[in-house]
Design brief:
Blueprint (H helix, E strand, L loop, with lengths): L2 H31 L18 H9 L4 H32 L7 H7 L1
């Protein structure tokens, strides 16, 4: 094998190890969320996946989940609206008017 190919293989293996290292906690969290309330405490021989935890949160909880979801959607929609409005007005001013530093502003936004 050439030296260049060995470097590519080692780089690919390193990226795969890093990817597994980064994604493993999310996979573990997903598996635990589908396990029973005490199944994750036992050292894993029988893994019974269930929707019980999600049903409890959505239907049986005193937690107003849909109220929180509605609040999050309202805040994110208003934030997106104001960000779009501000960006549109700024872009109009930058393109239509001549002022000192006009060239620097788009460059700093792209950097």
């Amino acid at each position: 094998m050439s030296e260049n190919r060995i470097k590519k293989v080692l780089l690919t293996l390193g990226v795969l190890v890093l990817l597994i290292f980064c994604l493993a906690p999310f996979l573990w969290m997903l598996v635990i969320s589908f396990s029973g309330n005490t199944d994750f405490l036992t050292a894993g021989s029988s893994l019974k996946l269930t929707w019980e935890n999600y049903q409890d949160i959505i239907f049986n909880s005193s937690l107003p989940l849909f109220h929180y979801l509605k609040n999050s959607l309202i805040v994110s929609a208003v934030s997106a609206l104001f960000a779009t409005l501000f960006a549109t007005l700024s872009a109009y001013a930058i393109t239509r008017f001549s002022f000192p530093g006009k060239i620097i502003i788009p460059v700093t936004m792209l950097a």
